[in-house]
Design brief:
about 350 residues, alpha/beta, Rossmann fold, 2 domains, two-stranded parallel ribbon, 11 helices, 11 strands
Length: about 350
């Protein structure tokens, strides 16, 4: 079998390269030690959110550099859904959906009601925020012209790798030039300081926290810094921030490989699996080989070929659920060449993490 590691490493490498250039939360345009600051936070002025008047939106003015709290500032975007049963309210639930680059404001306004149980919504004010450099919190800005020139994130030779590395260096300088000082202070520890400023502005002694993916790094580092200010914390799709980049890639790939083997076992014993009775590993290998040769068309765009890396990203996202039935159907359709209609399950829509 071609190891799932092969393509997954490429997928995760995108995030590793992006870690040096925080563009996922940025928009196109023509590390400081974290101590316990005594700097007072301004109160948030809440107004109905444009997307949903039942939610409240506001901003909090904070230092760009927490080491110099009297210096330049930026506005941190915040959103709130108040507890639906005030008499049973426990406190605030800060949330971060990950990315890095996903909008916590959007999560609180549009997704929180579907994500959290009715009981959670009764008892907690759900607070989302766009981390600095993301969304409405002074987003990192980069040249659209330069972004249009980016090479493949999946180099196949030393020359292609060097080309990608050179592009990333140029992009780093371009984004710094367009973004200003926030670019060099869009780090996780600064986000943790911002999160505690939110706590203070809300007048809370303790917070509850939910973090997903990159949001787990924020939660872990908040716990290290301000452990006595946490009531409860839930972390999903956890990332161990004690790992270096290489160890992170390897451990993630091993975990994905294990998920793939579970998918194979499930399909072997489940008659409803679209690949039941077939050698799933061989089907997978053959599909990736065809994709490498440019022979697999995009169901939504028959004129465009799907790469092995894109197909693997779909599988990687399906493992989150897991949505094994949807993945089997997707692979079977691509393998059978049934490409005229796009009927992929919602969770299998191709989406590169931000």
């Amino acid at each position: 079998m071609q190891p799932f590691f092969r393509a997954l490493t490429g997928v995760l490498a995108v995030g590793a390269f992006a870690a040096g250039v925080p563009t996922p939360g940025g928009v196109a345009a023509d590390a400081v030690p974290a101590g316990r600051s005594s700097t007072p936070s301004n109160a948030i002025v809440w107004k109905p959110c444009p997307q949903d008047a039942a939610a409240e939106c506001g901003s909090l003015r904070l230092p760009i550099d927490w080491a110099h709290p009297s210096g330049s500032t930026f506005d941190l975007a915040v959103a709130r859904r108040k507890a639906t049963d005030p008499d049973r309210r426990v406190g605030v639930l800060l949330v971060n959906p990950g990315g890095p680059g996903d909008s916590g404001v959007d999560f609180a306004v549009r997704r929180a009601k579907a994500h959290f149980s009715a009981d959670v919504q009764k008892r907690f004010d759900i607070i989302g925020f766009d981390p600095r450099g993301v969304g409405a919190s002074q987003p990192v800005r980069c040249s659209q012209e330069l972004l249009a020139q980016r090479p493949s994130a999946y180099p196949r030779s030393q020359g292609e790798f060097d080309q990608l590395a050179n592009f990333n260096r140029a992009l780093r300088q371009d984004c710094r030039r367009h973004s200003g000082p926030i670019f060099d202070h869009a780090d996780t520890l600064s986000v943790v300081r911002d999160m505690d400023a939110i706590r203070r502005s809300l007048g809370e002694k303790e917070i509850n926290y939910f973090g997903h993916s990159y949001g787990t790094l924020i939660g872990q580092q908040y716990a290290e810094q301000y452990g006595d200010r946490i009531r409860t914390m839930a972390l999903t799709a956890n990332i161990d921030h004690s790992l270096g980049a290489r160890e992170f890639l390897v451990s993630s790939a091993v975990t994905a490989e294990d998920s793939f083997q579970q998918f194979v076992t499930w399909c072997d014993r489940t008659r409803s699996c679209a690949l039941h009775g077939r050698d799933v590993t061989a089907v997978w290998d053959g599909l990736l080989a065809r994709a490498d040769r440019g022979e697999v068309q995009d169901p939504g765009n028959p004129d465009q070929a799907l790469t092995a890396n894109v197909i693997t990203q779909v599988a990687f996202k399906a493992f989150y659920g897991p949505d094994w039935d949807g993945l089997a159907t997707y692979v079977a359709r691509l393998g059978a060449g049934e490409l005229k209609e796009r009927r992929q399950p919602q969770r299998l829509r191709i989406s590169v993490p931000g």
